[in-house]
Amino acid sequence: MSLVDPRTKHTADIPALQVEHPGRTAELTPQPDHGEDSYRGSGRLAGRRALITGADSGIGRAVAIAYAREGADVAISYLSEHDDAEETARLVRDAGRTAVLLPGDISEETVAKGLVAQTVEGLGGIDLLVHNAAFQNVVSDVLEFSTAEIDRTFRTNVYAFFWLLQAAKPELEPGSSVIVTSSVQAFTPSPALAAYAATKAALVNLTTSMADEFAQVGVRVNCVAPGPVWTPLIPATMPEDQVEGFGKAAPLQRAAQPAELAGAYVYLASEDASFTSGEVIGVTGGSPIN
């Protein structure tokens, strides 16, 4: 598991910051911890082949590192953050595993569905599908939501998951695992993130329905619901005054580092979770998800 010292991760260390979307890891202060120096694998995913969306940075990078160090090859799906994606690929390869870089906008159906075929071609198959990429926009009034922004949020967060499932189902063998990233926002939504929160609630619902359907072919479907996590998405989509001290409202009074999420994704992908499907694991810093 990742050995993160929570005493060094207080949100008071996060200053006011704003960067251009989609954001780059190098632009963040402080720098996020993805488990680069702390995650130690034990072969729990040996020989597995994973497709992770949004794997260039944040939670996706932490999961890619953990999966590689547990023995999995990784296809890295990302929008356009080439430098970040190359760094994730380097970390995967340093673990002795294969990394495949797959740039493209998954809010487009052909791109999302094509990721699975590219993963099968590059890695020889697919056993693990992690839909983690997301878009959000912060507003102060529902009147500020544009149709284009609502559409982009749903296409990236929800439609893409449908398309990935449609492409992956014929390729996933019994024992495979599908994991989707929801959010504490699915359970305690903020008005300023109404569109994002609605998509994350939809993903919880989809986890239940798809777990039932995919069980018929021996594939498990589960969900991770993070609380506040320090990633490029935060300063790229939130006003800088809301970024300052980000995460203080959580019971643990801080944001998580991406490395602190990786263990949940490893568990759900591994044989340890062989009888776990249709579940939502909250990694929220103490906020309830029911």
Description of the molecule:
With about 290 residues, the protein is an alpha/beta fold. It has one domain: NAD(P)-binding Rossmann-like Domain (Rossmann fold, 3-Layer(aba) Sandwich), CATH 3.40.50.720. Helix content is about 35%, strand content about 10%. The chain has a seven-stranded parallel β-sheet, sandwiched between helices. Strand 1 (about 50-55), helix 1 (about 60-70) and strand 2 (about 75-80) form a beta-alpha-beta unit. The chain starts with about 50 loop residues before the first strand and ends in a 7-residue tail after the last strand. Residues about 1-10 have low confidence and may be disordered.
Give the gist of this structure.
This protein is α/β, with parallel strands linked by helices. The protein contains eight helices and seven strands, in the order βαβαβαβαβαβαααβ. The chain has one domain (6-273): NAD(P)-binding Rossmann-like Domain (Rossmann fold, 3-Layer(aba) Sandwich), CATH 3.40.50.720.
Architecture (CATH level 2) name: 3-Layer(aba) Sandwich
Number of helices: 8
Query: What percent of the residues sit in helical stretches (DSSP H or I)?
Result: 25-40%
What Rg, in angstroms, do the CA atoms define?
17 Å
Q: Show unreliable segments.
A: 1-12
Number of strands: 7
- Approximate strand percentage: 5-15%
Taking the sheet with the most strands, its summary is:
7 strands, parallel
Separation of the first and last Cα atoms: 26 Å
CATH class: Alpha Beta
Content-based structural category = alpha/beta
Can you tell me the CATH topology?
A: Rossmann fold
